[in-house]
Every structure is written in C-alpha cells, then in structure tokens.
Amino acid sequence: MNVPPSSLLDKVALCGSISGRDLDKFRFLGLTPIKAKVVGVPLVEECIAHLECKVVKEVEAGDHVLFVGEVLVAHVDGDLLMTDEDGVIMWDLDKADVLLHVGGNIYTTAAKPLKSSVKYSFFKK
User: Fold this and answer.
1) What does the chain look like in DSSP terms, one character per residue?
2) Does residue 27 carry a pLDDT above 60?
3) What is the chain's mean pLDDT, rounded?
C-alpha cells in the first residue's frame, strides 16, 4: 500500500478509475516504480510512506471485495513522524500531508486534527 501526499490528488483519482490491465499506470501518470523489499509488487516512489502487506482475508462487501492485510514491512521518512505523550508513534501533521479519500471524488487532508480528552492506548509500554 502506498500513502500519497495531497500533491498526487489527481493521479490517485485516476489510478482508482482505470484498470492496470488496460494501461501502464506508472507510465501514463508519470509515477516512478521502486522495488519493494518483501512483496513482489512495485511501490510508488512519489508517495510519503509504503506498507508492504500480505492478504490474510477477503471479505465480500456488496459490489466490492475488502482485502484484509498483515503489514510485513513499513517504510516512511522518520521526519514525518512524531511521538505523543503516551509514546505512540504517529504522523506529524505539520509535516506529513497525508491524502485521505472521503468518497466519490472528495478527498481531504488532516489539516485540522482533533484531540480527544479520553486517554487510551492500544499499545502497552
């Protein structure tokens, strides 16, 4: 999985609307394929992070299939990360311009993060 910045908005939308069976998306969109360390599919160099995953389950979801994956390797520029007061590593949203798909042709970024007053962590120290 590739994590794109907002600067790739139109290329991301096009990637989701055309089949790779019919077209070389890398060449058509001017993206750079790079070799993954573990999986056999290329990563997109212009993305800000990459998750190399293996599929562990497929779930029928109406007219789509949801693929559940196990992350084998993660790649990200450490300058785009921060650690919160609980020691949880996360995106530094002042630096990482993560593109998020809302639905249809609507996308957003996490430009205005909201912090809950509820303290919890999925990670044990």
Assistant:
1) -EE-BGGGHHHHHHHHHS-TTTS-HHHHHT--EE--SSSSS-EETTSSEEEEEEEEEEEEETTEEEEEEEEEEEEE-GGGEEE-TTS-EEE-TTT--BEEEEETTEEEE-SS----S----SS--
2) yes
3) 89
**17 domain-assigned:** yes
Whether 12 is in a domain gets the answer: yes
- Threshold 0.90, pTM exceeds: no
Count of structural domains, the chain: 1
In a domain, 50, yes or no: yes
The pair of three-digit structure tokens given for residue 34, joined into one six-digit string: 């790079």
**CATH classification at residue 29:** 2.30.110.10
Q: Is residue 27 part of a domain?
A: yes
Quick one: 54 exposed, middle or buried, by C-beta within 10 A (0-12, 13-18, 19+)?
exposed
**Residue 25 sits in which domain range?**
2-109
Buried b (16+ CB within 10 A) or exposed e, 39-50: beeebbebbbbb
